[in-house]
Amino acid sequence: MAPFLLFVFMFASQLITGFNEKLPPPLYGDAIHVLSIDGGGIKGIIPAQVLDYLEKALKAKNETSSLADYFDVIAGSSTGGLMTAMLTSPHPNYPSSPLFTPAEIVQFYMNNGSEIFKNRTWNWYSKYPRYDGVFLHNITRELLKETRLNQTLTNVVIPTFDLKKLKPVIFSSYKLKTLPRLNAKLSDICIGTSAAPSYLPPYYFENDHTEFNLIDGGAAAANPTRTAIGEVIQHHNFTKIRVLSLGTGIQKVVEKYDAKNASTWQSFSLNSKHVTWSSVSSEILSRASSDMDDYYLATMFPGLQLEDNSLRIQEYNLDKSMDSLDNVTKENLDNLQNAGNQLLQEIVMKRNVDTFDLEETDQTYAKALDSWAEILYEERQLRLKRKSMEKGG
Question: CA 268 to CA 257: how far, in whole Å?
Fold first, then answer.
């Protein structure tokens, strides 16, 4: 009886270990899965709330799993970059588990948002940014400690922009073999990608005898999806890619500008108020960039079978009061959390690449995520099985 019990114990231990095993590489599977998280400051609460729903759906199938156990790549810009690091950094006490769950990320923003965006003496003519960044820098270093890019639980892609060299810098797990200087501390990468111009100061650090002078990753890619796909297709021969892309919310489009009322190319009047082109350029560029990201995904990668395997989760009707990346009042934090929950019950919207209009589908975002959970789980099980068979298990 004793040998039988010992066998059962050993078998159970191996089974549990298998559940916790790192996701086998794509060569054992049928598709590559990418998770992409936009920038947006405190609005990161919205995608974090969405990811909490997805992780709970996955834990219903395997309670020991985390998002890093299912995605081959997790990418993020700005606040999305910080979330990426939190989801992929090993926990110091449980190295196969992430430092943060999505629910804990939500609480991180709720608890620390008011300190990250704590008002200081500032005016529009000041040469200094609105916030000094000291609290964000300190807490990022405290949380991520000495963890480097090559130590993440899955592949990571975090865009930044070098202010001195005027070019993007993409911190990618895939690039480390050829560009070891990119193997920086995750804390330095996160502080760099979060340095939104006019809000937080640029960030300087050195790694492997290389200087980095970084600002917000949103300067290069506010939506890092294309960046992540670019990294994947450079390093994999697979043609099937599934992408889950999460936004941080944008306001509903309101028709308020037109060419006939633009008296000059310098300025024009709107509702009896003087409006300069510079005051609307930020909104215009943001809208255009977001729409073009949808366009590129649908039209530039048809050979990758991406059209029917991508899901963009975005709140397209975000209330104006919640659209600021630094509104950290208790009321707004609660509203953002509620917006994330309500978004799950909204109908999935797809971008028509001919008209750029949004069109409704036949399911909610929650239902779509349930389907994703099933697909992710089946892909992971398939890879584990094929890897085991290869070993003769």
Answer: 9
